[in-house]
Structure formats: structure tokens, C-alpha cells
Design goal:
48% of the residues lie in helices and 26% in strands. It has 189 residues and is an alpha+beta fold. It has one domain (5-188). The longest helix is centred in the C-terminal third of the chain and has 20 residues, at 145-164.
Length: 189
């Protein structure tokens, strides 16, 4: 299932509320972040390296960033961006789980011109998400230093998490008896 803002917002809202972030601005925060994340994923380039049989195939995999990779990065990035207090860990847990769940339906799609059937690993090249997140939060009426700081922290955490996360992919296409391997580029849908 491709990414859509409504599903992403519901995942983020549920995770933020589940982590103790109760308030009337929580759905607005989740919706703004979802808009930003949705636009940000369109800018990502994904490179896959595959091994299998020779041919032309289509590689696909889930865009799942584990919360266990995202959470430590958020716990560091939030204080660096002036987000302190007793609710900061709850915000970090809600954002890491919610962002992971929001992006999980995303499908990495890579056309492979050298591998027809097989498997491999993909890597996403991170671009800064800050302008997209700030724009998403402003579009729902959240302005000021707080939303900008949350955007900067989440962007920094995502950049580090993407560098550390390999994404398994499967290549489906007509198999041949000859082996092949090679790189290819794609996107997230």
C-alpha cells in the first residue's frame, strides 16, 4: 500500500497519545508531521544491490525504519534542539514509534536491469526533512520556535537512522539460468 497522509497521521496520533502526549494539539502535530514526511519521502533516492538470475526485474521492499534505531537518535536530537523537560522522553517514544509506523506502508521500488529474480539490500540516501516538516506543521497552523525545533530534531534523527538502516528487497521477474548481480536506483511510493 503506498503512503498516504491520512494513514500516516493516524499512526502518529495513536503513537503520540499512547506515549502520554495528551492534548488538543497532538492530532495537529501528527497531521503536520505526516504532511512533511509524505513530501519528504518523494525526495529520497534509493539504491539497491541485488544478486540473482540474469534478466530484468522489479525490486520491492518495505520502508520500515525500526523504532529502536530512531529512538536513541531522537533522545539525542531533541535536547540539542532545545526540547527539554519531563515529557521529552514521551515525545521521543511517540515520535519514533509513530514515524516508524507511518513510513512502514511505504514501498521501495527499484527497477533492476541486470537481475531478473533474486534478492538484495537497498539503502536510502537521506535528504534533510526539516523544510518539509516545518512546511507541514505551518500548513496545519503550528508556528513558532517549538514546531521548528521538533522538525529539526526529527530530521536529524531520520538522517542518522537512514544511514544505519539497510532495507531487504526481493526481485521479481522472469528467471534465467545465468547468475547476475548489480546496482540500481529507485524511489519510495
Amino acid at each position: 500500500m503506498p503512503l498516504n497522509i491520512i494513514t500516516m497521521a493516524s499512526s502518529l496520533t495513536t503513537s503520540l497519545i499512547g506515549s502520554g502526549m495528551l492534548g488538543i494539539e497532538t492530532p495537529k502535530l501528527a497531521f503536520g508531521i505526516s504532511i512533511g514526511l509524505f513530501e519528504w519521502t518523494k525526495t529520497l533516492t534509493v539504491q539497491g544491490t541485488a544478486v540473482g538470475t540474469a534478466g530484468v526485474g522489479l525490486a520491492e521492499g518495505s520502508f520500515l525504519i525500526p523504532p529502536s534505531i530512531l529512538l536513541p537518535n531522537l533522545l539525542v536530537a531533541l535536547p540539542v534542539n532545545s526540547i527539554f523537560g519531563i515529557m521529552m522522553p514521551s515525545l521521543a517514544v511517540g515520535l519514533s514509534t509513530g514515524t516508524s509506523l507511518a513510513l512502514a506502508p511505504g514501498v521501495i521500488t527499484i527497477p533492476h536491469l541486470s537481475v531478473g529474480s533474486g534478492g538484495g539490500v537497498a539503502k536510502a540516501f537521506p535528504t534533510p526533512a526539516t523544510p518539509f516538516l516545518i512546511s507541514g506543521l505551518k500548513s496545519v497552523g503550528m508556528k513558532g520556535k517549538g514546531p521548528e525545533n521538533v522538525s529539526s530534531a526529527l530530521s536529524a534523527a531520520l538522517q542518522v537512522a537512514l544511514v544505519a538502516t539497510p532495507f531487504p528487497i526481493k526481485i521479481v521477474g522472469p528467471p534465467t539460468p545465468a547468475p547476475s548481480s548489480g546496482p540500481s536506483f529507485g524511489s519510495i511510493k
